[in-house]
Amino acid sequence: MTVTFPQKGLPWLLLLPQLLVTAIFFLWPAEQALEQAFYQEDAFGLSREFIGLENFAALFTDPLYYQSMLTTLVFSFSVAIVGMSLALLLAVMADRVIRGKLAYQTLLIWPYAVAPALAGVLWWILFDPSMGPIALWLKSAGVDWNHYLNGNQAMILVVIASTWKQISYNFLFFLAGLQAVPRSLIEAAAIDGASPFKRFWTIVFPLLSPTTFFLLVVNLVYAFFETFGVIDATTKGGPGQSTTTLVYKVFNDGFVGLDLGGSAAQSVVLMAIVGLMTVIQFRFIERKVQYS
Amino acid sequence: MHNLKLASVVVGLSIASSGFAATEIEWWHAMGGANGEKVNEIAKAFNDSQDAYEVKPVYKGNYTETMTSAIAAFRAKQQPAIVQVFEVGTASMMAAKGAIYPVYKLMKDSGQAFDESAYLSAVTGYYSNSDGQMLSMPFNSSTPVLYYNKDLFKKAGISQAPKTWQDVESVSNKLLASGVSCGFTTAWQSWIQLENLSARHNVPFASLENGFGGLKTELKFNGPLQVAHVQKMGEWQKNGIFSYSGRTNDGAAKFYSQECAMFTESSAGYAGIKRNAKFDFGVAELPYWEGKVKQPSNTIIGGASLWVLQGHSKEEYKGVASFLSYLSKASVQADWHQFSGYLPITKAAYDLTKEQGFYKANPGTETGVIQMTTGTPTANTKGLRLGNFVQIRGVIDEALESVWSGDVDAQTALNTAVERGNAQLRKFEKAND
């Protein structure tokens, strides 16, 4: 379906505000980062030297950079999968609630309004090995919780802290998706004797696939790009490098360490990885999506 | 008509006031909470003391945020006249020759009386060039000390604070036997357990006088002393004498909750400990290894100093100079030292505090000052001047954590850290040559 405009100028005029925003806040900085990646510069910008691909070479000869990539993959897929499955479960349950529906839904959406760094601090307190309520409870249950020393526990902590607020966002979309599933289909299946689980799995879930696909892309992008605040507030990338994700490294080297060229090169690599992943998702996973 | 009259009065007033307006001086700082209020108070007292200049303190977040915003502002030509920069940023500031206005030069250019010998050399040494000239004005300096829980000590039958690390071990064993779950924990592990460990034993942390001698410096903290100490701490982590509690000063929680009976932390942590500790506590000097050094040397400082940035008018710089002089006054310094727990930066402020009986009334507050001022600072104890120091500290944190968790032995971990840290130094050298 194509909409045609009588004049050529009008569509451009209507697009202009969004195009401007994209150009100023996305394209221009991206171009700057790309340029910066080929230079070595002191923090104050007093001297600048073109060094070609040296920043990239330094990255790709550093075994820790590959380790950070692996950490990022583990972290991002954990955040996306945990966040989406919990949100779907909550949405299915909230969709069934009849009394107090609005109250449940509002409460479930609430965490989305919390700033990432605040969410980080909140979980950091809850899990603090010597005074956090959850850590103390875990200790009494026989789990020796100390994310300052145990890399796996640190990873669990950052995944929980990053997932928590994203659940609200996912919940909202899943709930909307569920409400768009025609009741008649479900009722027909129920009359045919399909169990609730079967109804969900063969009817509702496939009809939710556009939402699920959209959320997968959004959640992965979120985990890749927007989680440095949470990591900074909880583990600062440690212990060792066990929670140093690519974006945390970009933040830490650029804004804390003031190594602008190196940080820019990392952000270019990160941009390429996410771009590639998105292409893969659209090429291969989207085929399985059923748009009605 | 009436309105017109009023308007002309307003215009006249505004012209008049602009004619007499004090020159504004912006001061970006990283002091939050009570210290931030104190900073405002100091600025206000200065503003009230004269009417030519007005210092405007602006809180810019933590140390990193303050430094990053000042640098971003400099690139956009919107920099403040004064910015507070933490000690690890010193090398970056020094290397930015076109961006900073060295304090000794500023004082000379604006004709302020400035006697560098009035300052405590252990403090100013960190911020001076190789000719001993002060490049920035120390503001809040601290040094690591050992806090210990007197109540738990008494219960375990210990009467004296540990002096050496050997003492720490034996005292901890007694504490553990009396039912305490951890001997000691530490804040800022790189600063206390490596940088200050090296200084205390008069051993280099890096070559070329710990980096004071130039950008070609190389890290040296994988020597026998440091390896032995870190190895020992790794063992202690296993048997409960030491308990790791993170890279910053989160370990305070373990000390407050009496989980750990001792805590190595900055002397500036005093106020917080006094507020939160519900037990009798004491302050002792940072331990040293008996047999590794005859007389332990002075420790080095942490904290921050005030840097003056280029790009302002002569008039403003005159104001900056008179403000820095004001800050160095014994009364102002003594007040700030007593309020915040940071070290005094002049001898006069130290003497004044003594005279006022502050140390007698607040036992333990003098420990850091005494420890700082014992002996003359040597090349190994003057301080550290390393580029990309923030990243190097990150590298060290990672290495130490790998030892605490028992993954790697101390020698391997420190060798790797030296190698990775040297790569950062070479990178800095290249960018600032």
UniProtKB/TrEMBL annotation, chain A:
GO biological process: transmembrane transport
Transmembrane segments: 12-30, 73-94, 106-127, 154-178, 199-225, 264-285
Keyword Metal-binding: no
Subcellular location: Cell inner membrane; Cell membrane
Organism: Marinomonas polaris DSM 16579
CDD domains in alphabetical order: TM_PBP2 (cd06261)
Similarity-based family: Belongs to the binding-protein-dependent transport system permease family. UgpAE subfamily.
Record's protein name: sn-glycerol-3-phosphate transport system permease protein UgpA
NCBIfam families found in the cross-reference section: PRK10561.1 (NF007852)
GO cellular component: plasma membrane
TrEMBL record, chain B:
Compartmental location: Periplasm
Membership in a protein family: Belongs to the bacterial solute-binding protein 1 family.
Protein name per Swiss-Prot or TrEMBL: sn-glycerol-3-phosphate-binding periplasmic protein UgpB
Signal sequence, start to end: 1-21
The entry's keywords: Periplasm, Signal, Transport
One Gene Ontology cellular component annotation held by this UniProt entry: periplasmic space
Quaternary structure and partners: The complex is composed of two ATP-binding proteins (UgpC), two transmembrane proteins (UgpA and UgpE) and a solute-binding protein (UgpB).
InterPro entries: Bact_solute-bd_prot1, SBP, SBP_1_CS
Lineage top rank: taxon: Bacteria
PANTHER family tied to this protein: ARABINOSE-BINDING PROTEIN-RELATED, SN-GLYCEROL-3-PHOSPHATE-BINDING PERIPLASMIC PROTEIN UGPB
UniProt cross-references to SUPFAM superfamilies, sorted A to Z: Periplasmic binding protein-like II
GO biological process: transmembrane transport
Keyword Transmembrane annotated: no
